[in-house]
Amino acid sequence: MSISRMTALVLASALLAACGGSEEGNTAANTPSTSAPAETGNGPVFANVDQARLNNAASEPGQWLTFGGTYSEQRFSPLDQINTENVDQLGLAWWVNIDTNQSQQTTPLYVDGVLYFSESWGQVNAIDASTGERLWRFDPQVAGDIAGRACCGVQNRGVAVYEGSVFVTAYDGRMFALDAQNGDVQWETQTITDPELWYTSTGAVRVANGKVFIGNGGAEFRTRGYVSAIDAKTGELLWRFYTVPGNPELGFENDAMRMAAETWNGNWWDLGGGGSTWDGLTYDPETNLLLIGVGNGAPWNPLVRSPGGGDNLFLNSIVAVDADTGEYVWHFQEIPAEEWDYDAVQQITIADIEVDGEMRHIAMQAAKSGYYYMLDAYTGELLRANNFVPVNWTSGYDMATGKPIINEAAQYTMQEAGTIIQPGPAGAHGQATMSYSPETGLLYIPAMESSMAFANAPENIDGRFNLGMEYFGHDYAYDDPENTIEQGSRSRLVAWDPVAAREQWAIEDVAVGGTLVTGGNLLFKNNGQNQTMGVYDATNGNELALFDTQSAAVAGIITYEHEGEQYIAHVVGGPSFQGYYAPTYARLLVYKLGGTAQLPEKVEFTQRPFAPPEETADAELIAQGDALYGENCAMCHDVGGLARSSFPDLRRTPLLHSAEGFNNVVLDGALSERGMTSFAANLSEDDTSAIRHYLIAQAHIAMNSPSPFGPPPEDVAPEDLEEVTQDN
Questions:
Q1: How far apart are CA 69 and CA 683, in angstroms?
Q2: In terms of DSSP bridges, do strands 281-284 and 289-293 run parallel, antiparallel, or are they unpaired?
Q3: In DSSP terms, which residues pair with 502 in a beta bridge?
Q4: Model-level pTM?
């Protein structure tokens, strides 16, 4: 696979967090408590949250008890002390620094005077909401050399609290119950069925009725998706629901898997099947159902994973299971036999809305495919299906059958040449949280428009990535006179009428990031790489305030009331696209009316200059390196070696001057604890030589090209190679 054919995959993962190594050891550890909030009545002093309190979270608008605010995951708060009349008085109250160079996607929780939030790798903090003092910090001590086991980074999206405990799942799949008072480990359990497989866990945990729910990632790496329910008191596995069937010779776990297997062909289990649930879990107390959003297939090419056809259940589906037993109740498959890396793992929001003259208890999702779906939360009946961004893979849905009308011209598996797809694999909606206001009746969707060309390559499943297809990023793919799709992407906030299933208005040119809507008629939105948090009128989208976050702002935003004042809080920090050494300015930022705190000025950062050796390789060797780089390196290090997120810019590394130093890192794993795992199982010394020469060629090209960060630096002598080996 050439590097250009990896472009879209990189674009997709560039929106998410990046890999990198843990700076500490291998044993879980915490920093102990130094202060405590006041006693809160019966039950635990800290995280005194039982099931009744979770069920009635909407009656405590001053708290933020779950990932989505309440079980409905609406991310709406009726608090209105901060409103359209006084938002100009909103200012930063205080902040807490996070010592990391990783991307942050977590949503904090606020419970009785304490803020709990996770960091990348599954680290957890407890913060005194009165003083901003860190009460404790837990580090699961994940080994850095497994950082490369995911497509998209070591982020963690959030914790759960229940009966005095804080629950988190580390990147390597270990779930922890922590004492909410001091961070001590109460129990630890491994949620991954086979730690030798390339499973990871980055999603926010959910908890209900004494059970902690978590899925996993890894579909691209020949894994089989599932969701686990863990006993909140003991850490024991209570049930597990697989999202795709396994090997029939080993027997099926339940009737649902037997039914799903009828929609597959070939030896799909040898390739994993896919179906990761890396996010997209919603517990609905009214139905006692756990709604599971299921990811893409493995390989992506349906002709490879299921030769002979079939819908491939439960890929790209929302599946409802009994939350007590894990038994299948219903499913809705958004795209049968999907082939474009779309998935249904985006946030699932519950609401009671009048639809066609009848009050319905509904589930809503704005999916990666660019389509908005409204389902009956009891039965899974499809009520609405409309696109919220331009799409070309379908002309619409047959509402009688609930199936999309696929555009055959968009099926690369049926074409001899590359086919341009919109949205591309970056998707129309990813992990950025949407919100729904019962007061405005609008759903606020962080949307992105993108496109990319695909080509059929069923033989392409032997590398690190289990794809079975190829990407094309070449301009020529967009030069066809009949093509109406523009190359590139844009982000916008779409205010969506969920019943009419159409856009009401939009905020243009805002980067992708999480949202919050409040009773003060305010829409708060993190604006991603723009490094701002915007505050908008929730009725019409007019900008009312804009805050400099100094860092990528992509995570969820919360509001709470503490000691009579309303606060807004979010965690920021992430890729600067200047590489491993660039500061990420990761922080918890907290705002209130009259806040006057000022963030410290940014430290000036200068990229290491380009200083490649003279290029001596021929075009054939460089082309070989291009292909090897695309297959093994581009997922993390981006197109041509340029910096993406918190990875080093490989065009700038002095290791290009030394084959020995380069192999020490790539083959011997000298930097494995910082996330650069050894590739000795995939690459030979001849391979790494080709990759190194390819990067040298890319560095020479970059030296003569404009930089997005200013003029190219002057050529300088390479640094001492021994030193570079230690800190590259």
A1: 47
A2: antiparallel
A3: 497
A4: 0.88
Residue 704 burial by Cβ neighbours in a 10 Å radius (0-12, 13-18, 19+): exposed
| Percent residues over pLDDT 90 in the chain | 68
Is residue 341 flagged as an active site residue? yes
Enclosing H/E stretch for 394: strand 394-398
For the residues 691-703, what does the mean pLDDT come to? 90
Amino acid identity at 679: F
Return the bridge partners of 710, or none. 707
| Contact yes or no for 697/615 (Cβ under 8 A) | yes
C-alpha angle 69/151/137, rounded to 5°?
A: 50
Residues 6+ apart with CB under 8 A from 433: 68, 75, 107, 347, 446, 514, 515, 555, 556, 557
**Range name among 9-13, 556-560, 631-635 with the lowest pLDDT average:** 9-13
Which residue spans of the chain are classified as CATH 2.140.10.10? 3-593
Q: What is the mean pLDDT of residues 422-443?
A: 95
Residue 319 burial (C-beta neighbours within 10 Å; 0-12, 13-18, 19+): buried
- Answer yes or no: is pLDDT of 717 > 50: no
The catalytically annotated residue of 112, 341, 343, 638 is 341
Q: Pinpoint the residues of the chain covered by CATH 1.10.760.10.
A: 619-727
Instruction: Report, as an integer, the average pLDDT of 513-537.
Output: 97
Contact 278, 368 (CB under 8 A): no
In CATH, which of 1.10.760.10, 1.20.1250.20, 3.40.50.300, 3.40.50.10380 is domain 619-727? 1.10.760.10
pLDDT band (50, 70, 90) for residue 637: confident
> At what angle are helices 685-703 and 659-666 packed, to 10 degrees?
110
Question: Tens of pLDDT along 168-203?
Answer: 999 999 999 999 999 999 999 999 998 888 899 999
- Measured CA to CA, the distance from residue 598 to residue 602 in angstroms comes to 12
Angstrom distance (rounded) from CA 88 to CA 498: 30
pLDDT in the model for residue 6: 30
Report the alpha-carbon distance of residue 458 to residue 304 in Å, rounded.
6
Q: Which two tokens stand for residue 447?
A: 């949307």
Instruction: Find out whether 444 and 517 touch, Cβ atoms under 8 Å.
Output: yes
Residue reference for tokens 């909030």: 37
Closest CA to 586 of 534, 551, 548: 551
pLDDT tens, 322-350? 999 999 999 999 999 999 999 999 999 99
Report residue 21: phi and psi, to 5°: -95, 150
Does CATH number 2.140.10.10 belong to domain 3-593? yes
Separation in Å, CA 457 to CA 416, 417, 422: 10, 11, 19
Q: What is the pLDDT of residue 25?
A: 30
Closest CA to 80 of 566, 562, 556, 592: 566
Mean pLDDT computed over 47-76: 98
